[in-house]
Amino acid sequence: MSPRTTIIELYKEEMKFSAGHFTVFSATERENLHGHNFSVYVALEGVVGDNGMLADYGGYKRWICDRCKLWNETFLLPGESPHLTVERGDYVTALFNGERIPFLPRDVTVLPATNVTLEELARLFGEGLCADTARLEQDRIVAVVVKCASGPGQEASWRWQAGP
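Below the sequence we write its predicted structure tokens.
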């Protein structure tokens, strides 16, 4: 008998955050500052154990909720953009195409990303969630999908799959 697999889908009310951002399109073009009410969805696929369950997924849920709380009510800036530089001092200043955009340090989260897009946010959530591959293996999880949405009908997905 082949192993039985299942998919646990997590999209709790606490798995959301409100944040400001702007997307950088090129060295000279960017959006105006604005914000979204982002939501996060996670699907864990794996082998059901003898106890009739995939895994205790509470830790995965807590990790996502904690990250959402960390990013909630902040302005997200890309720390690895080829077109934008972030300076830190009394203010956090985004330098873009000759513009200086200042923020209070408490209001900013600088992300290890090239841009603040749904694609990058989904990747950051996914890579963080899947960083402990030994835990994923122990929990018999073979695939993870993370979706980040900025509103109904607008989302990006990131996927991790265990090796052969």
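The two ends are 20 Å apart (CA to CA).
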